[in-house]
Amino acid sequence: NKTVYLQIKNTSDKDMSGLQAKIASAVTSKGYQVVSNPDTAGYWIQANVLKADKMDLRESQGWLSRGYEGAVTGAALGAGITAYNSSS
């Protein structure tokens, strides 16, 4: 079941209004279908943006290697970092 429910929150002081759409696009490009009902989802992606700031690729890889790993999590974080950096 390649369906995903997204629950993306932003409690940072930055405008991240397009983040969920960009994560949905990244997940969809990997062959998953984003659904609006969590009961029908095979996977959930839950994220809360606590702090958002520009960082270079090496720094973002450091964050990923310190315990924020996993295929879907990595894709979501990568999409979020790319989305934020490209919109700023």
Main features:
single chain; about 90 residues; alpha/beta; three-stranded parallel beta sheet; 3 helices
What does this molecule look like?
By secondary structure, the chain is of the alpha/beta class. The chain has one domain (3-87). The chain is 42% helix and 20% strand. Helix 1 crosses helix 3. The protein is globular and about 35 Å long.
Task: Give the strand order of the largest sheet, numbering strands 1, 2, ... along the chain.
Answer: 2-1-3
Number of helices: 3
Radius of gyration: 13 Å
What shape does the CA trace take?
Answer: globular
Low-confidence stretches: none
Write a brief caption for the model.
This protein has three helices and three strands.
